[in-house]
Queue: 3 jobs
Job 1
Amino acid sequence: MIGLTILTAALSAVFSIAAPSAGSPEKASYDEAAIKPYSLPDPLLTLSGRPVRTVRRWARRRRPEILEQFTREMFGESPKLPRRTLFHVLEESSSALGSKATRRQVSISFDGEWTDSLVLLIYTPNGLDEPAPCFLGVNFWGNWTVSTDPAILKPSAARLQGYGTKQIRPDRGASQSRWPLEEIISRGYAVATFYRGDIDPDFDDGFKNGVHGVLDKGKERDAESWGTVAAWAWGLRLCLDYLEKDPDIDEGKVAVFGHSRLGKTALWAGATDRRFAMVISNCSGCSGAAISRRRIGETVDIINYKFPHWFCTNYRKYNCREWDLPFDEHELIALAAPRPVYVASASEDNWADPKGEYLSLVGASPVYALYGYEGFTSYVPPGIEQPVVAGRMGYHIRRGKHDIALYDWLRYLDFADRFLK
């Protein structure tokens, strides 16, 4: 079995100190030499202490244990998907992107419960003989920002005002560098996205707006109530319900992906819904792909202080006490097994701890090995822009800052060619 103890100074037991009093979080550290020795929880050891040696035992016993721990202590308990979801095609054209693609814009809502629907924007390549594999992800600033395409619908002025001026960008194509639509289409893939604010606003509003305000039905929140990241992941699953019905999409070949906080979202969506055929994390950092126990860059206490709405209240117990977590992020990666998973970092994105993101793949590799797939065994990450694929795992560190760039997309497309074509 691949070793699960990852240490920076010496092999020793878990390090612990008292958590600081409530208030501002500790200052971020970027000093590898200052990392205290730590041990990672073994993904192949049940809570009762029994080793997991078969896929059957992983799937029926250990995986549900890990999923329940992440649910209870970090993301919160999400509601089931609605029994009846309404899909309405708002606009459709087969001459999008210079007639290379078909554009479809679909309203998704629940019967009698949710009137502020999300709008799923989909581009599918024209001229294929069969349904296309698809990349599905949430966008930060609004559907109209992913392309200069003038036909992308914009919400009413009142809806835009309701999002909040800090939550959107008004200009068409403002974030198109993150969405190389023509490149994706030319490779034979569809791409689908929705705006994060259509599901839940990205600020602490007491969970009164978005789907929380509808689905919680006024119920008093507790320490395990779902946060905003879980709501976004829930929205991705809702969109997958539609994509399974779209005749132009191969329902068995939908990859979920995301950048930064939306990379955390993609990892949780992939963990909670095994219909996703591939999981991609781009610079997801703390509480995403990066090992929490390293405490490099953003930490659990910093993230809970700055973004108290992202996770459930229970997660705050681990502020400055990451070593007390019953899991670490390598097990979030392991929840994707045996599906293909790709993690990407950026060389100047120290806030997201690139080395910690890579080490999560190392820590998850024993689970992939259980399925008979090669994984990452070296604790030394690959060099900058030297992508590595091992079995059903992929990783690269791109030159540059915290972003999602064409280089990242080209690697994801290459990886998808292996498994979704």
Job 2
Amino acid sequence: MKNLLTIILVGSLMQIVCADQLPTDSKNVYAVILAGGSGERLWPLSRLQFPKQLLSLEEQKTFLDQAIERVSTFIPTSHIMVNTTRNHAERISHAVGDRVSDIIIEPGARNTGPAILYCCLRLHQKDPDAVVVFLPADHYIPVSTKFVEFLEHAITYAMHHDRMVLLGLQPRYPATGYGYIEYDPVLVSKYNGVVPVKKFHEKPAYDVAQAYVTAGNMLWNAGIFCAKVSVFLDEFRIHAPEMYQGVSNSLHDIDCYHQVMSESVDYAIMEKSGRISVLPADFPWCDIGNVEIFLSLKEQKRSTSRRVIAYESQNSLVDVPDRLVALVGVDDLCVVDTGEILLVAKRQEAEKVKMIVQTLKDMKAYEYL
């Protein structure tokens, strides 16, 4: 019965979404693609000189290229921006060319809370009536039609309500690398698809994630959200006043930015706000969060055979060009060779790759970062 209810709700929601396109008067709608991350969990594929948003699968367009193309289908180039840090600004600028209107360069890397606040303050100067959607550059969405329909619906709702709207994905398996959003499915039709968030849940253990998948009232937090810029700014003023003051001061004195607390937007405002809603969505999606996820996708897209011999070995992911790799008696490995760096990690421990990056920082071995 629970599964049937979910199918009915998703089907009904798709009818709502398809009928609720962006209004013709959407001159104040903007998109900001977040491309400032360093991708430490994707090391050594992602480096300071070649960040994760510039990676691609099997010679396809980069993740940043794909993110720009997706929003370009319904938002004009003049209203598309990319946010990044000074470390990546030159490379990002070269990569995007004239396909966006502006590159918002943060004075430093202070996590998504200050980054989003900085973008909102800059955008508010340009257009006080702006409605903005934030989208990470490192997501993989192979078929974008449904994605665009859901996102248009979320933006339209945000245009007419003083609330922040998240996209929440119907969980397809017990993922432990994503945060979850709890909501009430019964309210979907009452609120025209966009429902109040009941609670945010941290990345769970595997058994907890299994329970979330079968519960029917839990969604993956896709990290895609929108609201009026004025709503974002109000929430920062209320829930993160020190961050708001510090980032505001940085518009006139860059050094102030480096004193701002490094904190995610989830912790800064989302989990504290009483004006947060979620749109349950259903489209192909993957957050390229670590090297195991990236290699899994690359394996699916691989058009040429690998030179790998495995004896009494199973389920390993190998990305070693121009070399024969022999595996004997080992299972569930990620093996990556960039020429100067060889990484060997257990697939289920891929999140811990960032600890190697921290060790390299402590050693001041910057040539490997």
Job 3
Amino acid sequence: MEQRSKGITELVLTYARSEPPRDVRGIMRLSVLDWAACGIAGAQGGGFAAWASTLDAAGPATRFDGRMGSVSEAALVNGTLSHALDFDDTHFAHIGHPSVAVVPAALAMAEMASASMATMVDAALVGAETSVAVGMWLGRGHYQVGYHQTATAGAFGATVAAGRILDLSDTQMRHALSLCSTMASGLKSQFGTMGKPLNAGLAARCGVEAARWAASGMTSVWDGLSGPLGFGETHLGAGELPVFAWRMGDVSHKFHACCHGLHASLEAVRGSDLSTARRIEVFTHPRWLTVCNQPAPDTGLGAKFSYKQVMAMAALGIDTGDIAQFTDDCAMRPDVITLRDRVHVSQDDTLSEMQARVVIDGEAHFHDLRTPLAYEARQERIREKACALVGARADDLWAAIEAEDLSRFAGLLKS
């Protein structure tokens, strides 16, 4: 008889069958809106149209590119397109983007099963919680060595999301997770290329397929996550088991169209007048210095990874929440370049990855992205962001989410 170990798999099963708290469910609904707006905009301007057109299997699931497709291909396409602009939510507990992996899987399965909006949201939520918990269990070493947590931990979250909609038994869910463990993948070497958003799509597709295969009777090892030669052991997992907790209430939504490492510094100076500043000093966690500290970007893409650039933009009143502002022309504006020279960036080992301190002519400003944001304020900012991305359709999307109208919501996703 196989040994039923206590560990990460048991924790994942607990998430899979749990009833989410009302407040966290509300945050997940906002993440669904945020995900939808990012995906629609990504389909229109992410550069993936030719690639998506090669995926043409017919089926019941809605795709951002306007097609209806198979459940697997819809999850793949929607996961990829929603991460194409890198403007989606992030959870810093494991440094991953939860929604782009789990929501596409939950939506595709919900459409196939004619499930309700509430069922889809709850499935996405327990999937997101799973991805964060698995990511924490894998640990920073897994991420630092080169694995992309959005894809690796996200695949397990997508499996749980899809499996919940299929109402898998605990045994079936174990097999689904173990099937996922032999498929989950994603490397940070893809960052800066079309391969990075593809990682999210692959995670979503992996989850859908693992869950459907387990539902059909396919079996696997009893514990492909933490068992001998399992995913953790072979992918540099630390194996430190997190406690059961609902963590999506701490998810960080992107309100600036740039690398998330820049957001704490931008939030620190939000509402401040930088136009006459002679010296702007940015202090940040050391890890961001190798990620988003390009000193003199000359492209719109490079501008998204530059403290100097975004601080100069803020000083000139250029909206860093508007993705259309991150252009080659903006990066090369003479007034922007002049202001960049006034920005000085230093590491501060006492700051966390979610904190920043900005000193403007001797006056210090601090922000921690973990600072609780009231639900009403979060909703307002996400809806404003969605409107900036997709116009009036954002209000229709939110109305469909609030009205529990999954078919209406899905219909609005088509570009």
